[in-house]
Amino acid sequence: AAIFCTIALAGDVKQTLTGHSNWVNAVAFSPDGKLVASASLDWTVKLWDAGTGKVKQTLSGDSSLVNAVAFSPDGKLVASASYDNIIKLWDAGTGKVKQTLSGDSSLVNAVAFSPDGKLVASASRDKIVKLWDAGTGEMKRTLTGHSDWVSTVAFSPDGKLVASAKLWDAGTGGVIKTLRGSSVRTISFDTTTPYLLTNVCRIKFNIASPTAPVTKKNTAATHAAAEQQREQQQDQQRYGLGADGSWITWDGQDVLCLPPEFRPSCSAVSGSTIAIGCAGGRVLLFKFTTKPL
């Protein structure tokens, strides 16, 4: 089932819809925040209207359980990765498959579009990151050197760098740096400061000269907390999700406790709207209409 909630502070449920029949592995907002994509073990990706909670498209051409999902920067394409090692690029408007990317030899854990939408990066359990041409489906680069599964991948804001547990030159495929220490499960580039945000630390580096020495800041904060901190620096009055997933927050303060059965297996935030994917197949879309008192 999928539950969509428009919430004044009291938390009134406005809509309840039927949706996924199995665990939700990933959720993502379109760049304009109008759509939510959810990837499930029921072999489908669903696109939801974030305003009404209605299903806009069900992308059902995957031939296995779906593990990851991402929107292109213009919101016109959706990338999905499934347990059969296949990545599909879908037209978000029509629900039709535009490209099928095959070449990974194991399950794909994460996908990401480059800022110009021309490349798709895939992170796989075969210890490899691959870069694909989003227009033709051709594999452009194979980034090898990891000693274990690759759990996450992201492009730098200028599209010149790719981050996993290593920092790569997107043009040549060469390794620039290796991130040492604990297992890196989530990573993103901060668009306003020279930091890589990971689940284990923040890494400061010079994006104009990425081969220069880096400074690591190991903190107890997770990637979600670091991301939330960044967003709050840009807009102090903002909803988010706490580091352990048990609270919805406003300006970093706990405001709504999520019962254990609604704790997220995955989540995404767009302004005052929070999408949460749950193990039971629920997708919770919280739309806040008022500020906490």
Q: What is the string of helix and strand elements? A: EEEEEEEEEEEEEEEEEEEEEEHEEEEEE
Instruction: Name the CATH homologous superfamily.
Output: YVTN repeat-like/Quinoprotein amine dehydrogenase
- In DSSP terms (H or I, runs of 4 or more residues), the helix count works out at 1
Assigned CATH architecture: 7 Propeller
Q: What's the total number of strands?
A: 28
The residue-averaged pLDDT reads 78
Shape category: globular
CATH topology: Methylamine Dehydrogenase, Chain H
Number of domains: 1
Helical fraction equals under 10%
CATH C-level: Mainly Beta
Largest sheet: 5 strands, mixed
CA(first)-CA(last) distance: 32 Å
Strand content: 35-45%
Which structural class is indicated by helix and strand composition? mainly beta
Unreliable spans: 8-17, 219-223, 225-237
Strand order of the largest sheet: 2-1-28-27-26
